[in-house]
Amino acid sequence: MILRDTHRTDTKASHVRDSTELFTQMNVLQFRAPVAFGRLAIPELFAQLVEPDAARRLRALASLCDLTHDPERLYQVVSEGFLDQLEVLLKDGDAAVRTRTCELLHLVTSHNIARQALLSSPLLARLSQLLDDPSPLCRTRAHRVMNSLALLPAGAKALQALVPKLMLKLQEEQEEKEEEVQALLLSTLSCCSRLDAAPALSHRGVTLIGRKLSHACSNIRREAAGAMMALSVIVIAMSQVCEAAVLPVLADLLRDQDVDVQANAAGAIMNTVVITTGDFAAQPSDLLPTDRQALTSLAEAPEGRRRLLLQLPLLVGRSEPPEEDADIRRAARTAVNVVTWTP
Which parts of the chain are coiled coil (predicted)? Predict the structure, then answer.
């Protein structure tokens, strides 16, 4: 009897299916549907989107992606109501069609008129369902559209109702290898939380986002620190950051090789140390010399002032050398002035 490793076989088969799906899509998309002259082009291409042949639908979508780079053609798509017809394609039985439709929507969100139309259409609800799509490529494209919308205040407001689902997806993605999806998720949550942090906080926002701060991928660390900064403007979030021991992790990020990670971490620390608990939880030596405002807030509490006084020689040393970075010298001088001031 020959024993077979069925788990390995199933996994290999899954990879083959994913590779076949991607290869098929790339092969089909080498071709575009013929484009009619002038204003007839858009109506004729949209007419082909209802064809029973998936290859024809894909070719029509490819041509539409090319045309919508032209603002005049894009305006025609929106003003003549063609955008709403894409809802059917988001439910298409072919994963490649759903994926390409998301790519088309991502392209049109670069224009304000299309973004406004998309936010007021039924497409947004259908897009949220694609976050659970069986195709990894389709899920990624759907996240891109969501994130593009969330970058605007109107989009972030429209996505507020989806924050609970986004938090659930973040929890599910803990062990996933789809790093782009995790980064997009965190970026979207950050945008939504800047508008209103309460929904994310009520769904374990500090804990779930805090776990991403130590991720190996710098994009994920950057977006996680940005989301933590957005959350930490609320007093209850400041307390949770301290209770969950997130401050030491943020302090470690001040030494990150990615400057944007450092900046976002410093912002989250600055917000948190406003409260007394945050003052006591922060370590002055960890904050040096990244953030003047965080150091100033820390010095306002008696315990924080005492700790900074112990670091005074280091502060003075970093405030004087001309070869030191100008921002570092300025931060150190500010800290020295704060802790040595007497009435």
Answer: 156-187
